Amino acid sequence: MSKAQPIRITTAGRSRAEDIAIRQKRYAISMSIRSLCFIGAVIAGLAGVTWLWPILIAAALILPYIAVVMANATNTKSDEMNLMDSPYGPRQLTSGREQQQLHQKGEDD
């Protein structure tokens, strides 16, 4: 007889502190890139590269929006394990009415 694997009934994501730390890190990286865009725009403007500095300014203006959206995005991934079927069929919770119907169906058979 093989040993049955335990059935996991919950999936736990990252802790709140870990999630906030990851979001803060993403925000800091985005704002660093924004700062580099501003610095690059100034250098490109002083160097006479007239096509580059408007692109860098536009990127620097758009990045705060992207950074805030990314920072506010919560973790949607989980380390979910699919529930295993038991030898008695898949386990699931049912409402009282469904339970009564199953019980009545069993008595009718």
Give an overview of the whole structure:
The chain is mainly α and 109 residues long. Helices cover 61% and strands 0% of the residues. The protein has helices at residues 16-47, 52-72, 96-108. The mean pLDDT is 76.
Considering the chains and any ligands shown, give keywords for the structure.
rod-shaped, mainly alpha, single chain, 109 residues
Average pLDDT for all residues: 76
Order of helices and strands: HHH
Q: What's the N-to-C terminus distance?
A: 31 Å
SS-derived structural category? mainly alpha
- Our estimate of the beta-strand percent is under 5%
Shape: rod-shaped
Task: Give the helix tally.
Answer: 3
Count of extended strands: 0
Biggest sheet features: none
Helix content estimate: 55-70%
Q: Unreliable runs, pLDDT <50, ≥5 residues?
A: none
Radius of gyration (Å): 27 Å
Secondary structure topology:
Blueprint lengths: L15 H32 L4 H21 L23 H13 L1
Characterize this entry briefly.
This protein is mainly α.
